[in-house]
Input
Amino acid sequence: MPTNPRSTPHSKTGCLTCRRRKKKCDERHPTCTACHRNALDCVWPTAETAARPRRPRRRQIVVAGSRLPAELSAMMTVFALPSPGLVRRLLHHFTQHGPMWLTSRSRNSRTAILFDLFPEAMESPLVLNCVLMTAAEDLLKYDSSMELQAAAIDYYGEAIAGLRGALASEPDGDDLTSDQTLLAVALFCLHEAQNYSDSNRLIPHLNGAAILLRRRLHTIPPNLSLRKFLFEMFCYFFSIAAFTHGPSLAFTDSSHIFDFPGLDEYLHTGTIMGTSQTAFPIIFRLSRYLSESSTETSIRAAPNLHFDLIRTAQDLQDLRPSFQISPDMTTESINDGVTFELYRLAYLIYLNQVIGPGILTDVPLLPEMVTSFIRYLAQLPAESPSDGFLCWPLVVVGLHALDRTHQMAVAQKLKAIHHRFRSEIFSRNLAFLRRWWREGQSLGQVPLGSEYPVVLV
Output
């Protein structure tokens, strides 16, 4: 009767030679059948090696994890504490890049905001998590390591949980003694702009900031310079976001802020855009008017609205005379003056479209204003401190640029800014402009702000 081949005893505790060759061993002593057949030395484990525990198969764990999507792989370690070295690296990244995202100031003034921000971060775990969240997500653009992916998810989750708790325990009225919750919401706005993925992620934070800031309009700030910066930051983000997403924003709360008598003092000179930020309330007024009307025809058919829009143009003109560079000006003064002109020209160009050509008096023709815009743009250095705040005027004027050289100037600036900032806001708006230049201009109708696909902050 033939022998059953499966009846031969096999064991995982066979000779070392079979284990190394990953062959089954029948454990026949002193030489097993496999070693005898292949003329190999049959080596058996000693008592010491036999008692040694097996090492875990780490390699298989790593390989199995690497087959998962990056988001799921990162979540496998989401509750692991980031190393102190990574925390230092993220704080260093925010120190180096944060001023570029937050201000157009230069030299020592450029880092001044950090002296207000970091003490709050050291005191408040919520603010610290918001700083680390923003830095981690931005650093992922340069380093996509698993540790950094896990940290970005972890800090975002911690910041969201902390913000919910802070909002739930936010005191009312005169009991407000801290701006840390408002600062955290402002940092979420920064995070959603610098690490942009979808405009709808920014909108809830802007509405929340409007509510929190309105509650603080008549309270004494614990840190005046921080409160001033939070006013500036809110006015920039809200006025520009309202231009494209007005119907989704809370104008009731924000109107109280933009009508606040002390706002001019906060915005006259500041951290974000210096003297140029006096344009924010006027852009807000335009955005609010546009949110109330869906078409250019409805705007022109409403006499009061039509008159108010014309008045905003005059208010913008009255803010300061046309800018001219003089030899005694500082670099910062030149930067502020040119930036204001870019905003003013973009506003007038857009308003000319909304209310109809020929209505605005003492304003050059549209082609002349576009040419002036490109000329002022050329006066900024290749890497201007204002670059991060130029998306709105560049896109607005780019849609009205018919000359190929003007289009190239706008495209090159947006491309250069994206290279520095790595924010998808700039690259997506550049793609939008290129589609418009290629296809949309034949339609003859420049889109209204609410028809822009991406926020312009």
Remarks:
- The chain has a mean pLDDT of 85.
- Residues 106 and 141 are 25 Å apart (CA to CA).
- The chain has 22 helices and no strands.
